[in-house]
Structures are given as C-alpha cells and as structure tokens.
Design brief:
This protein is α+β, with helices and mostly antiparallel strands. It is 32% helix and 40% strand. The protein is built from 4 helices and 8 strands; from the N terminus they run ααββαββββββα. The N and C termini lie far apart (55 Å).
Amino acid sequence: MTTQTQDDVAIQMLAQRYGEAWNRQDLDAIMDMHTDDCVFTAFASGSPLAKGKEAVREAFAGYIAMMPDIHFAERSLQLGQDHWVLESTMSGTIEQAIEVDGEELGVRGAQIQVPCVDVIQVRDGLIASKHTYLDSITMQRQLGGGE
C-alpha cells in the first residue's frame, strides 16, 4: 500500500489546477503558477527555449492564439517529489497558421488531436520548467497545407 505525503498531494493539486487553467485558456491563472525564472520548451515545434515569466507568457499566449479552444485530455499522470509527467491528448481548432522551420502550416478551422507529454519541474510550490513533447508528424498532417 502506497501512502501519499503532503508534498505528493501538493504536486497533484498543482497539476490539477494547472490542467484546469489550460483547459479554460486562462493565461493569468496559468502564469500565476510559475516561478519568475521559469523556462518553457516545446520540442516538436522547433520553438526556442523561453526563459523568464514574460517570455513564457508570450509563448503560451501564442499557443492560445493559435488554438483558442486548446484542450488537454489527461491519459496518464505520474507524480514525483518535485515534478510531474503528464501524458495527454492535445486538441483544438486552428485559428491562425504557425511557423515551423520557416514554413507556415495550418489551415484556419483545421482540427488537431495529437499525443503530448509534459515534463514539469516544481520549486517552492510553483512551476519552474515545462518541457512539452508533441507528435509533430501527426500534428503537421492534421494542420493541412503549407503556404
């Protein structure tokens, strides 16, 4: 029998609040859960590492602008002492094209549904880093033609 510690419960509650904020597209609530020196990388899109709360906010705002109905459906949540790993399905409707390796992809109205893994580090009860891995091949197929 496994018992949860206070730290485990705190991580689980943070993960739940974070997922709910993303599924509401509530950028202020999302960012309230990040450290000032947080970092973010989306490995499938070739986007650079965003460092600092303002840069991370800008990156997240770009995702929400691209898919105003972005949603993450949890498939698996693994908790650790200072982190969590979320396997989910990211879905949404493309509102504007995205740039991947200098090429615009995305047809307005295209629906995407792709596997996603987030590895999230926590420090002092806040998110210090978020590394997102997407199935880029599936996403590019679903985005529709390039410009």
